[in-house]
Write a structure and sequence with these properties.
By secondary structure, this protein is of the alpha+beta class. The protein is built from six helices and three strands.
């Protein structure tokens, strides 16, 4: 069974990208303008996505010290926990999906690039 981001985390694909970007930050968060820049999104669209994530309790916003207009977005503990719990099912979905579209040689090449991929998902 293929499990997607929407079913697993109850967020859109674009919101999931925001969460992943914030999850890469060891401490603190990122300025809204930097998130928009890294994702290639208009800031107005990102503002809506952040509001949805904040409403879900997955991110918080805070003012940047020393900058009245700067807003930083931070991942909540709830979001970190959900991302950790969802990582295995999502990774399995990606592996299964790739194997469905790739031939045996491509699967072997992918396992060479990503050693954590075990077995051949095409084998039944």
């Amino acid at each position: 069974m293929v499990v997607g981001v929407e079913e697993t985390l109850d967020v859109s694909h674009d919101e999931f990208l925001v969460l992943c970007l914030l999850a890469e930050q060891p401490e603190g968060g990122l300025r809204m303008t930097r998130v928009a820049e890294l994702l290639g999104r208009p800031k107005t669209r990102l503002t809506y996505q952040i509001a949805c994530l904040q409403h879900a309790g997955l991110v918080t916003r805070r003012s940047v010290c020393g900058d009245k207009r700067g807003i930083e977005v931070i991942l909540t503990d709830k979001a970190r926990r959900q991302l950790k719990e969802a990582s295995a099912p999502l990774a399995a979905t990606v592996t299964e999906s790739l194997a469905h579209f790739m031939g045996p040689e491509q699967c072997a090449a992918m396992r060479g690039l990503v050693p954590d991929l075990t077995g051949d998902a095409r084998a039944e």
